[in-house]
Amino acid sequence: MKRNRVVALCIALFAFAGAVHAQGVAWESLTPGQRQVLAPYEQRWKSLEPARQEQIARGAQRWLEMNRGDRGQARDRFDLWRNMTDEQRAAARQRYQQFRALPPEERQRLVKTYRQFRPLPPEQRRELRDRFRDLTPEERATLRQRRLEQGPGSRPSFPPRAPQRAPQRAR
After folding, report:
1. Burial class (CB in 10 A: 0-12, 13-18, 19+), 109
2. How far apart are alpha carbons 164 and 139 in whole angstroms?
3. pTM of the predicted protein model
4. 130-141: average pLDDT
5. Nearest CA to 18 among 26, 30, 29, 10?
6. 65: number of CA atoms within 13 Å, CB side?
7. How open is the CA angle 61-76-50, to the nearest 5 degrees?
8. Mean local confidence (pLDDT), 123-143
């Protein structure tokens, strides 16, 4: 009997949650801070889809919880996103989905590699990118495999570059 009550309560809660989800977020139910952040949306708030209202409300709450440095970084990322073409945004979404589909250990390894790469001077980052871009697909696969075998914290060891000839001077 007690089990039936628990099941009935769960069903009622799920039904209530579904109804709330379908209704979205009422403007009046937002906190004063959220309303201040979302002021540009006030006039069209009711016309937004409920899922979009919830997403925007969560974003406003995250914004309110950020410190000044995090807000600056978020603004920079938003400006970068806004200035992308539709094709660039689609490519970024696709890369993000590919990243999310990786096993957790692989994601952690990629994040760690990125964090090692980020503080390098711009010219060193450019050189590493150029060297990676110049590799054949087989060389890239070998480099990735070697990196996996070496484990975390290892630095990539590129194959030696072919010597470049100095340009001939006209006489």
Report:
1. middle
2. 19
3. 0.53
4. 90
5. 10
6. 7
7. 35
8. 90
**Token reading at 159:** 């194959």
Structure tokens at 136: 């054949």
Chain-wide mean pLDDT for the chain? Answer: 81
Burial of 22-47, coded b for 16+ CB within 10 Å and e otherwise, reads: eebbebeebeeebbebbeebeeebee
- Structure-block tokens of residue 86: 């539709």
Asked whether the beta carbons of 38 and 30 are under 8 A apart, the reply is yes
Per-residue pLDDT at 144: 79
Residue 17 has a CB neighbour count (10 Å cut-off) of: 10
Assigned token pair, 138: 């087989």
| Per-domain boundaries in the chain | 22-83
Rounded Cα distance between 157 and 114, Å, is 16
Model confidence at 165: pLDDT above 70: no
pLDDT beyond 80 at 76? yes
